[in-house]
Amino acid sequence: QVQLVESGGGLVQAGGSLRLSCAASGSIFSINAMGWYRQVPGKQRELVARITSGGSTNYLSSVKGRFTISRDNAKNTVYLQMNSLKPEDTAVYYCKANVVLTTTRLSYDYWGQGTQVTASS
Fold it and tell me: Model confidence over 67-77: pLDDT tens digits?
């Protein structure tokens, strides 16, 4: 019913920048919070940044001042601008959206497929 498609991951040298995008499509009436998570093998998935429908944001402490989350509600898209990347930022990044469906007007969480971000030292 709803698909999230991510793009923008890749390999960059430490200190470099990447911009992730995540576009939602399908039976969308509205989208509440959207967020970016990351996961490395053997560890739990962690919240990196989150943005509400009204634009309020919160960040993982280790990325504050380096990463910026934003969204385009008209395009049902969330972005993550990542600057000053460090090797410890290397992970698979996933987007998540809490979507209100047009069919039921109930909300559900949906996840993207993940995109690899690698910052080499």
Answer: 999 999 999 99
